[in-house]
Design a protein that fits this description.
about 475 residues, alpha/beta, Rossmann fold, Alpha-D-Glucose-1,6-Bisphosphate, Chain A, domain 4, seven-stranded parallel β-sheet, six-stranded antiparallel β-sheet, about 35% helix, about 20% strand, globular
Length: about 475
């Protein structure tokens, strides 16, 4: 079957794609930015890639006319203060684009919306479902609970809290009930619904076997990790304070923290869970889902991470807009070093950031990350998804990877910390020379002052980093 996969670069899309290919489907991957899409070698030559933007009606004309089924996995939570309007309009545009095509089914992954009062985030998901349901195709909606898996936002936030805080004075929403579900079960259900007429024009709740509070989930992860954690909830923590609590302790952005806190006050408990019986499935327990997530982390097999989505940063852009480093009106710091061993230097470059650090003055990098957090930036806590591999679109501490080519010996990063301007960091190998270039395009007088105030630090940091890379 020919299947359209929207959100192919997202957390769910990256997990779903290889499964669809393994099942023999012809997959058309819809991406907003081709340069950010780096599918694995096992699927690269078996798929079709179409670049489109759901907010741009003209681009949707690129959808192939012979698509039979489509997955709608696109969400805009926290990318903009107007994300509800964007999500609704995107759904309308998508529905209208499919109206002239021969398509049997659209499968939409949403959230559980059984509470009488919904958060803005969950209400937006419901609005999208309502709009998609007006199409001339069969709509199947899977309303999932909190998704637990290596790299998922919920799992990583819980992990951050448990591993960093032996004692927690937490907001009262930690007593809110939910039903977490393993990512592997989500993928099973999504694929099980393809061309399954019993799921046409239906919506189902998908949850794990247990009803837990967020506090239970924290204690459960601590139990699996062999940690003892003490947690007390207090009624006086406002939503704003709760958002700051998540923002400073975890790797989440402040915009996402606000949206999550708003959602965590709402119970997400399943009611219509017929899908389990329909697909003859026995969902994993929470503890087992956590164990499997850590197994993937320990084996360095994280297929996708929420951190690599633009919602983890403060900017929403196309890589192609920034991949050509400007020169006019820019300030630069360039270091050249003769290379002793090309392979060794490339290995060091590709291992930079995360737990491995930046080869010189790591405490200064951490201080810069802390200061960035204080002013609403992303800080250093995002780390990196894979210990050894880097791909375009990945996060690398407070940088975003724009270009990564080992054979060419070139790595280009764009800064996502808060700056009075724009910054790039490039590592490029030409013959037997490493060329390391920091480029800053200042915004006004504040940008120039920023560059010159930090110049003494840059001199030692960049010079020593280049030296150690070779």
């Amino acid at each position: 079957m020919k299947i359209l996969l929207t959100g192919a670069t997202g957390y769910i899309g990256k997990r779903l794609l290889p499964v669809l290919v393994d099942q023999g489907h012809d997959v058309v991957c819809c991406v907003r930015d081709k340069k950010k899409f780096t599918p694995g070698n096992s699927v690269r030559h078996k798929i079709e890639i179409v670049e489109l933007d759901l907010t741009d009606k003209a681009s949707l004309k690129r959808i192939p006319s012979d698509v039979e089924c489509a997955f709608y996995l696109v969400h805009s939570m926290a990318t903009s203060s107007k994300y509800q309007e964007l999500e609704k309009q995107s759904a309308i545009n998508f529905r209208e684009a499919l109206s002239d095509l021969y398509i049997r089914q659209v499968i939409y992954l949403s959230g559980i919306v059984n509470s009488k009062t919904l958060s803005a985030h969950l209400q937006s998901r419901k609005n999208v479902e309502d709009e998609l349901g007006k199409g001339n195709y069969a709509l199947t909606t899977i309303r999932a609970g909190i998704i637990i898996g290596s790299g998922s936002a919920s799992f990583e936030i819980i992990r951050d809290l448990v591993e960093k805080l032996p004692v927690m004075i937490a907001p009262r929403w930690l007593n809110t009930k939910c039903q977490p579900v393993a990512i592997s079960d989500v993928i099973k259900v999504l694929t099980g619904c393809i061309n399954n007429r019993e799921t046409f024009d239906q919506h189902f709740d998908l949850s794990g076997p247990e009803t837990l509070t967020y506090k239970d989930m924290l204690q459960g992860l601590a139990r699996v990790r062999g940690l003892k954690r003490h947690i007390w909830t207090v009624p006086v923590m406002t939503p704003r304070l709760s958002s700051y609590w998540l923002y400073f302790v975890t790797a989440t952005s402040y915009k996402l923290a606000i949206a999550l806190v708003d959602s965590m006050k709402v119970e997400v408990v399943a009611q219509d869970d017929r899908i389990k019986e329909l697909l003859s499935m026995d969902p994993l327990s929470y503890d087992e889902a956590v164990r499997r997530a850590f197994m993937k982390i320990e084996q360095n097999e994280i297929v996708s991470s929420w951190k690599d989505s633009t919602i983890s940063g403060r900017l929403n852009y196309k890589i192609s807009d920034y991949i050509s480093v400007p020169t006019h009106g820019c300030l630069t710091d360039q270091r050249r070093r003769n290379i002793v061993n090309r392979e060794d230097t490339i290995h060091k470059i590709w291992s930079i950031g995360g737990d491995n650090g930046w080869y010189f003055g790591n405490w200064l990098w951490r201080l810069r990350g802390f200061l960035d957090k204080l002013v609403g930036g992303v800080g250093l806590q995002r780390g990196r998804t894979n210990v050894h591999e880097i791909q375009a679109g990945d996060t690398l501490d407070f940088w975003r990877v724009l270009y990564a080519n080992k054979e060419e010996g070139r790595l280009l990063l764009l800064a996502e910390m808060k700056l009075p301007g724009e910054a790039w960091l490039e590592f490029r190998i030409e013959e037997d020379t490493l060329i390391q270039t920091a480029t800053f395009r200042p915004k006004g007088l504040a940008g120039r002052l920023y560059w010159y105030v930090l110049f003494p630090f840059h001199f030692f940091i960049f010079d020593s980093m280049a030296e150690r890379l070779v």
